[in-house]
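FIELD: query
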Amino acid sequence: MIAREGAVSSAYFQTILLIERLHRQFLEVIKAELDRRQIKDINNVQALILYNIGDEEVTVGELTHRGYYLGSNVSYNVKKMTECGYLVQARSPHDRRAVHVSLSDKGRELRDVLSTMFETHLAALADRPDMEGRLADANEALRWMEHFWRELLHYGPSMAPKKAAATG
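FIELD: result
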C-alpha cells in the first residue's frame, strides 16, 4: 500500500507540474506568434482571453466563471484590451452593474491570426501517428483531474477521493 501511495504521489505531483508548465509554454507559443507578427499592444494572456471570447458577447463575470482567469486579472485585461481597441464594452440594459464585452474589428483580426496559428498546429499534429488517440487519452486524464479537484472543492478533502474514484 505504501509503495503504491508513493507511486501515486510522484505521478500526481508530476501531473500538477506538467499542467502548469504546459500552460506557461502554451502562453509562450502565443507570445512568439504575437512577436513574429510584431503585435506589441496586447500580451499573450490578453490574446488568449480575446480568442476565448470569440464571437460571443460576454460579461467580465462570465469570463471569470469560465474558470480560465483570475477575477482581478480579467477586469484589468479587459480594460487594457478595450483601451487598445480589441474589445468593445457596453453596459447591460438589464443590469447597469454588468458590462458586456465583444470583439471589435481589430479584435476579430487578432482572433483570426490565432485561429490560423491553431490550424497550422492541427495540420502538424495530424501528420503524427495516433495523435487523435493520444490527445483523447490526455483529455480523458485531464478531465478526470478537473473532476477530482471540483469534488475536492465541493465535498472537502475527506470526501473527494472516494466520490471521485466512484465516478471516474
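FIELD: remark
The chain has seven helices and three strands.
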